[in-house]
Every structure is written in structure tokens, then in C-alpha cells.
Amino acid sequence: MSANEPGKGLVTPRGFRAAGVVAGLKSSGASDLALVVNDGPEFGAAGLFTRNKVKAAPVLWSQQVLTGGRLRAVVLNSGGANACTGPEGFQTAHATAEKAAELLGCGAIEVAVGSTGLIGRQLPRDLVLAGVEKAVAELGATAEAGLAAATAIMTTDTVAKQCAHADGAGWSIGGTTKGAGMIAPSMATMLTVLTTDAVLDRAALEPALRAAVRVSFDRLDIDGVMSTNDTVLLLASGASGVTPEPELFTEALTQVCLDLAGQMQADAEGVTKRIMVRVTGAADEDDAVTVARTVARDSLVKTALFGSDANWGRVAAAVGYSDADVDPDRLDITINGSLLCRGGVAAGGRTDADLTGPDILVAIELGLGAGTAEIRTTDLSHAYVEENSAYPS
Amino acid sequence: MSANEPGKGLVTPRGFRAAGVVAGLKSSGASDLALVVNDGPEFGAAGLFTRNKVKAAPVLWSQQVLTGGRLRAVVLNSGGANACTGPEGFQTAHATAEKAAELLGCGAIEVAVGSTGLIGRQLPRDLVLAGVEKAVAELGATAEAGLAAATAIMTTDTVAKQCAHADGAGWSIGGTTKGAGMIAPSMATMLTVLTTDAVLDRAALEPALRAAVRVSFDRLDIDGVMSTNDTVLLLASGASGVTPEPELFTEALTQVCLDLAGQMQADAEGVTKRIMVRVTGAADEDDAVTVARTVARDSLVKTALFGSDANWGRVAAAVGYSDADVDPDRLDITINGSLLCRGGVAAGGRTDADLTGPDILVAIELGLGAGTAEIRTTDLSHAYVEENSAYPS
């Protein structure tokens, strides 16, 4: 695996251009509309969307688009989720795709749309369409263009998030993501676009994307909340002329997704601690995920870790109420390397664990089988409460 | 239904005595051990316990005791949960029951034990046993004795919680509870003792207790966390000589439990808003509970309400990711009387709803069937974070 090139992101793979512009959707006047274009020669694509039953209009539109397995372009906007907006909102998403298609010379059914921001308000359609026009005029394949797109999708994110991976065989993967709150099991108000110049069709892209997301974005759980707008898209231009082995491509895509998920964790709303919950010895992988997720979501665990308190009793309680096979007498809990609970009983003083740094590893051994899983989360801090009681997402 | 007599609580029904003493388990020096004694002539009892798979020693002991369906006494302590304490912890619970039994002249198998406080530390057995001795010496049937017992079980509670109901036919119900944090679907680090002088055996008490708890304590969900120690006990002395109709008794018991649950909600850690989530029009009652609980636990909903923001979009998102049948196009959301979302689309400005007061009603109509449910919760405030990052529960 070659080194990452974080400078370019989306446009690291050949065949892609990007832009980020001010459409006027954010009252702050910051950039709020991004466009990513695949110039081919191939146009294979795959997508994954929120499992929330209340789906935003752009999700409904893009799910329809993806049934074709081809994408020429993606339009993303911040400054409004276009969710709970009814037929009018759906028409806005549709009109956005039509506008981009008209300017790029393709069909609307080849253009996906993604939105993020406040739920329940109509997007000003005229501003969105004018923004698409502006973005088409500014398309470029430079590092600046990629960064502009990554910047335009930010909401409460404090930094733009990009990643790229170049393989020695001549193909590469790039990506950008946004999401700092509402990050949840099923991916959060997370908009992610991934690009590659590998020669891969939809049939190869879909399983690779599913495999990569399953162990990255799906295992980032900041507050257990699932958004109406989660969208992950993967576009392949084929411009490298190289078809990698499926396992090799999946592995590289997974690394890019893990890198982006790590950036989201580090920039989560109000984070003061980056927490990894690692479960081993579960009856199976599903049980391991269930236990890790339950601990990662537990408000009492998260507030204790905010207070740098290795309160393993709260971890034990969370393990116990998870919907997984658990034998209390086989439970070991180790926090930042200190074994605090062995066989369900106190093993050391909880002051033995040093939690003063920003990274905390909560390792839970269930002693039942070979199932393992890791879930990344953050602490529950004053800043989380502040940001989410004031920010009208 | 007669008026409540909140002054006496546990000892309102005839046949009961109570005490609350300083055993020295709390470093603050506050009272920390309560004893409740049933003087008969009947000794029927029922109990419900946490569904957490990691159960505290007193829960394991009391579950065993309750298989007999009889209780002569209950010993409760704050200042230590006696959870994750292994065989030594179980022996402490057993020794506590034996001590009380010896002093009261009954069998240890007729004495339940309940504990609350920090998980993972052994209780100082000598102090507990000396505390039992002291409590037996101070037993009384006065309002002061009932209040002393209610006070001795407090942890982060700021007020003692009592309730009593006297029926015109000559029987009554009394109760006390504690629990201000870690209050969850399955009852919380909640210790509750209910007493009655009605003539009812175990076969009558058990279904009444299950029915009352199902719609009261089980529908109070402060932070979704389930404790290792939750215990609800119901003791019947038969001293009134009256056997009420089962429906009448269940109804009165439910009212007492709802009153106590309301006191717990009002005193929850860091509460600034008392929130009722009411779901109507669900496919069935289970779905209504699922939707209400998902909304009640959603960190983004809770922080918005802390900020007095009627952010119905976050409510809609939570409804959408609940594990219940939901049709987004039939979803209505009304907050404090203002219809904000109709048919899944914005119906009014969210500033229409006045959330400045301490009580918030979030009413969700699903438009699918006749299922209804109410879940009580609180907001997620700075004080919640403060209390739970500093208090070593």
C-alpha cells in the first residue's frame, strides 16, 4: 500500500473534476455547494444511503439514480437538508440534477444529489440552480478544486476532510466527507464521495463499497442518532486503464474510508476524548458489534470518560444490558492498558488507568468465542450540549 | 380514589415499621441504611428486578428470596451498589439478610436486600451489619420513621420521594423510591419499596405489580441506561382485613407508581425540562412505546429541548430510525400545542411553540392504527454532564 496524498482527495484519481462555490444557502456566506464530475471514460458507480425511514428528498432521488449503476456527476449542498419537504423538495432535488445534466451534456438520471443542514425547510431552488451553474464554470482537477468541494459541504465541521490513496499499479482512490454531529450507526448526516480511476463496473464497486463502509463509517457512533440524509457514493472513471484485484481494491477503499471516519471522529461536535471500544471474545462478530455499540452510546460511560474517570462499573453495566450473549463471570475490562475488572470483579484501582490524554481505549473481553469488533466514539462533553442546543441542525 | 397522604409513605398501611440510619457507608456521613419490616399478619410479596445480565449481589439474593413469595423485611443501603463484587459480595448480601432475620426472629429467606451506589467495590460488611442492628432498634410506624427510610436510600436525589394512597374501603398503599440518574427503560438504579395492608397473596400481588410497573417506572427513560441494581418490591401485611377487587388494587398501585415515577423525573440529574413524549396512531402499543422511547433517548432532541428549541426535524429523524412501522407521509408532530409537522412536512414555524416553561409535551401522531404510549424523560443539559462526569456512580 502506497502513502496517502491528502492534498488532493477527490481529484487524485484521473478523470475527475470538482468545484465548491457560494450559492447563498448558508446565512454565513460560506461556500455551500459542491460539484464532482466524472469525465470517464467509464461511469460505473455505487451508493449507500441512510436506513432511516424518513428519507430526505435528495436521498430518494439518488437511490433512484443509482439503480442505473452509472454516475456522471454529484451535486452536494450544505445549508439545508431538504428533508421533510414533500413533493416540492423532491422537485428541487430533481431540478438540481437536471440543471447539472443540461450543463454537462448528460441525462439527469446520471446525476446524484446530496444535502445536509436543517430539516424541514425548502431549499431556495433558484439559488441552488444558479449555484450549479457557477460550480460548472469553476470545475477543475487541481488540489484547490478538490479542497473547495470538500469545504463547501462542511456544516459544524471545523476542518475539511480529504483522503487519497495511490496504488503502485497505477490506479488511485480519493475521497471527501463531512459530518461532525448526528454521526451514527448508519453513517450519520454524513455525505461522502469517493472516486477512483480503476477500471471497475458496478458489479465490482458495490460489494467493495459495502465491505469498506461496514467496518468504517458504520462503526463510528458518536451519539447513536441516524440522520435522514446519510449518503456515500463511489464513482469510477476507468481512466487509469488498470483493473485491480477485487480484494486489493476493497482493502485500499477500506483504508480510505477508515481514514475519513477517523477524521470525522476527531472533529466530532464537542469532542475532548477520542474513544475506541474494542470487544473480543464475543460469541460472534454481531454480538461484538452489539456490545461495543451499547458501551459507545452509554451516556454515563461517555460522561465518565469526559471526566477522565476510568469508571469500569458503568462499562460493565452497559455490557450487561446489551442484546448480546454475556457471562458476567467471564467479563474482563481493560482501560488504557490497565486491567480493572477480571471475571466480573474489580481487579485494580480505577485510578491505575491514565485517562488524561485525548485517546482512550476501552477493551472488553467476553471470554465466550472468537467474535471481535471495534466501534469509535467520543465523550459526552459540555461542548456537545452547547453546540447541539444552539445549532439548529 | 381517595386523596394521597404524602406525609407517611411506607408506613401509611397498617402493619409496617421503618427506619433509616447512618451506617457509615457514605463518606458524607449522611444516612445510608433503611429497614422496612412487615409485622403481618400476612407476608405476601412480589418483586421485579433489572433485566441487566450483570446483576448486583443483592439482586441475585433477593430474586432467590422472592421465589418463596413471602417477605418479612427489606434492608436497603446507599453508599455502594455491591455489584461486580463476586462471591464475597454475595456473602455480604446474605449476611445482611441473616442479621436482620436473627434480630426480627424470622428466616433469612424472608429478608430481601437492595443496594445502590458505586459499582465494583465491596461493602464494608461490619458497618452494614452494625447498621442493621441500629435500624432494628429505631423501627417505628410514624411519619418520621417512613421519611428516615426514604432519606437513607438517596444517592444524587435531592429530595426524599414518598407517596401514599388510602382507599375508602379501609386499605391503603404506601411507597418510597430513589433514583435520579441511570434511570432507564428497565427501571434504573431505582430502589422502590411498596407496602399495602390489603389482604392479597403473592398470586394477586405479582400481576398487579407487573401491570403497574409496566406503565410507570418502565416508561421513565432519562438516559437509556439500565442499572445492575434495579429493584421494586411490594409487601402486603393484610392488616386491614380487606381484600380489594384486583382491578381496583392494580389501579391504585399504578397511581402510586406513576406518582413516584413523576417525582423521579422531576428530580433527575441535571433536569431543566420535564418532557413527555406521547405517541398516538401507532400500529400497536409496542410500536408506540418503541417510537416514544427512541425520541426520548435521542441526544439531539434532548439538547434542542434544553435550548428551548422546538426542533421537530430532529424528532422526525428519530421517529424514522426507530424500529417501528412508520409512514413518513402520515407523520404529524405537535410540540406544546403547536402543530409543526403535518404529513411529514413543515406545518408552521418552529418559533410558534413556546418552550420557555419547564414542561414540554412532544405529541407524535403516526396515522397508522390505535397504538398509544407515553414515555417521560428530561432534557440533556450542562448539569447532566457535570453531575455524571464528577459523581463516581
From TrEMBL, chains A, B:
Subunit structure: Heterotetramer of two alpha and two beta chains.
Active-site residue numbers: 189 (nucleophile)
First and last residue of the signal peptide: none
InterPro entries linked to this entry: Arg_biosynth_ArgJ, ArgJ-like_dom_sf, ArgJ_beta_C
A Gene Ontology molecular function term of the record: L-glutamate N-acetyltransferase activity, acting on acetyl-L-ornithine as donor
Localization: Cytoplasm
Pfam families linked to this entry: ArgJ
Sites where the protein binds substrate: 155, 178, 189, 269, 388, 393
Record-stated family: Belongs to the ArgJ family.
Function statement: Catalyzes two activities which are involved in the cyclic version of arginine biosynthesis: the synthesis of N-acetylglutamate from glutamate and acetyl-CoA as the acetyl donor, and of ornithine by transacetylation between N(2)-acetylornithine and glutamate.
Protein name: Arginine biosynthesis bifunctional protein ArgJ
Keywords: Acyltransferase, Amino-acid biosynthesis, Arginine biosynthesis, Autocatalytic cleavage, Cytoplasm, Multifunctional enzyme, Transferase
Enzyme Commission code: 2.3.1.35, 2.3.1.1
Site (Involved in the stabilization of negative charge on the oxyanion by the formation of the oxyanion hole): 116-117
Pathway: Amino-acid biosynthesis; L-arginine biosynthesis; L-ornithine and N-acetyl-L-glutamate from L-glutamate and N(2)-acetyl-L-ornithine (cyclic): step 1/1; Amino-acid biosynthesis; L-arginine biosynthesis; N(2)-acetyl-L-ornithine from L-glutamate: step 1/4
Superkingdom in the source lineage: Bacteria
CDD domains, A to Z: OAT
Keyword field contains Transferase: yes
Site (Cleavage): 188-189
